[in-house]
Amino acid sequence: MSPKIKEVDGRELYTGNQEMTGSSMLIQALARENVDVIFGYPGGAILPTYDEIYRTGIRHILARHEQGAIHAAEGYARISGKPGVCVVTSGPGATNVITGIADAMIDSLPLVVITGQVATTVIGTDAFQEADIIGVTMPITKHNYQVREVDELPRIIKEAFHIATTGRPGPVLIDLPKDVSTASGFFNYDQPLDLPGYQPTIVPNKLQIKKLADAVTNAKKPVVLAGAGVLHAGGSAEFLEYIEQQQIPVANTLLGLGSFPGTHPLSLGMAGMHGTYTANMALHEADLLISIGARFDDRVTGALQHFAPNAKVAHIDIDPAEIGKNIETAIPVVGDAKEALSMLIAENGTPSHCDKWKQQIADWKSEFPLWYKEDGESLKPQRLIEMIYEETNGDAIVTTDVGQHQMWAAQFYKFDQPNRWVTSGGLGTMGFGFPSAIGAQFAEPEKQVVAVLGDAGFQMTAQEMSILQELNLPVKIILVNNAALGMVRQWQELFYDERYSNSLFPIQPDFIKMAEAYNIKGWKVDDPKEMQTALKEALEYDGPVLMDCRVTKDENVYPMIAPGKGHHEMEGIKP
Amino acid sequence: MKRTIIATVNNTSGVMNRITGLFARRHFNIESITVGMTENPAISRMTFVINVDDERGLDQVIKQLYKQVDVLKVRDITDEAIVARELALIKIVAAPQNRGEISALVEPFRASIVDVGRESITLQVTGDQQKVEALIDLVKPYGIKELARTGITAFKRGTKKSVFDGPKYSIIN
Chain A residue closest to B8 (CA)? Predict the structure, then answer.
């Protein structure tokens, strides 16, 4: 049979049965899946695949550490909605992406991770650069495969993309032994999927939707808690329409920010440990709580025994295992958030009469907004975020690590649009913010991407400045520099009698010189009066930028629900 | 509460590892687990006996099992008409003069003597858990040298009406 080659978008695609090597199959399959960028790092066991990357010219971004590659793939996935693809070698290459895989698993990001593996003939002999990555990643992937025969490869890749992107998205890993990637087999990518054990429910049960609509009608104090599931489903437009139809106040989880406009009158802001007083009190007093695409994480609920004590809970989730996992649920709705919202809009139930409730919420909002105290001397980190918000017109893609700067960004950057916010929520990964900004910039080359980072987290993946230098990628790095592991320092201050064990940095690198080493323009700012001008200049600069912003060193994130406390026991609210 | 759950799974390498790993990391308590091929060699059947606190815990076990791509069907068959069996090998101390007595003792259990040593004999018994436990209790006074149990394997009965409502343990069973 002669190979039929057709050209699609400048790519050569084989159709029908064509004999080729495993690594050719892989690159062909990636082309068939419309993968336009791979993040990775080469090494011994993956060499045949890198040879194929060289030969075909498929776009590959070379990170300087595999962790950088995997977080970039995550940022790309979060913003583009497409699967992030990461290719690394066996052994240490594979183990270096574990943090990113775990991060993508807990935050439901679609990834296809391809790891090289030693040849099948030596697997199990502790060969050079051998690691049992299938065993290691079993609990942190949605599914994983080790390819044993080259003929299985097309099916496995097709299944991997399908599993990663459908249902509740997640990472899928393919372990590719070196001899399989050089063996020849027949490539046929047109066989239908056969996955009887994987049939996610997309369209919810109509009766449950009706029940939910009736519950809204009868509620006196309804509130919606919206998470990233709304964003993954691409359901923000339907969500806004449903909320305006039903007039229900909306609290967001950390990862759900942007699924509903942050400046909308019905927005309560973020709920949880460092959420707004209004969002938390609304959850505490609600008689109907509708969770959409959120999983009742402990940072959202606080102590479970105090959580939403009066509420009947309705839970819309594409993953049935999330329903009833942490919270007793009265109205379970299994399905895609966008589908569920469309059905709820069509149901057009009578909105609840809850004017008193909305008045109560408005009172909380005006009486206890998010706040901070200016001292007239130091640069307040909260003010810094507000300035970034102002100077980017609230339309930048913002990425963060984990910790204080993350909470301030979540509190003070009002996300009005979906897909502008990339943060490590469930796993809380330091070193995530900078490489994920690189991935986000590849997903949206024309958009302003701002990496808001802590000085500690940045140092975990700072080597990826090489990518900015190499490609003149206009990512703006803004260090919220308090010379400390801010959130650790805050907990030590509050709960460990100010014993600051290993959380303060007596010595820091000169971040500007560091940036200059990569030919990246740097600004150092510690005077609040100069901040806005410098920020404006940096954001307008054509190319990558690092701003070292020296903020108040002992600033804490408030308000706060202390561990073991409930939503009604917030501390540090506006006096 | 103790529940018997059966699952059909793809007979692929590592599938047992996936399931036991899931049970371990979610702190589900497994009492026994058995696995074997079915009439279709591409599919295996697993039988778990698990201990859960409440209905919600049980619900989680079933839902988490279903999340595995290699898991095809999961069923809690505790309250259904089922055939549930396990096999036990029991090596007991048995001086020659006791052997006749032991042989008579285990006869109603349809246990068989599958090995005889100078100082011991090995019994094999098949049946539901209660029966196996009853036999173990019975021979305990002779001194158990070694004991191996397979754990329960089970499936639903062909007809539903055959629910046997009498005492669970019976010597005819």
Answer: A197
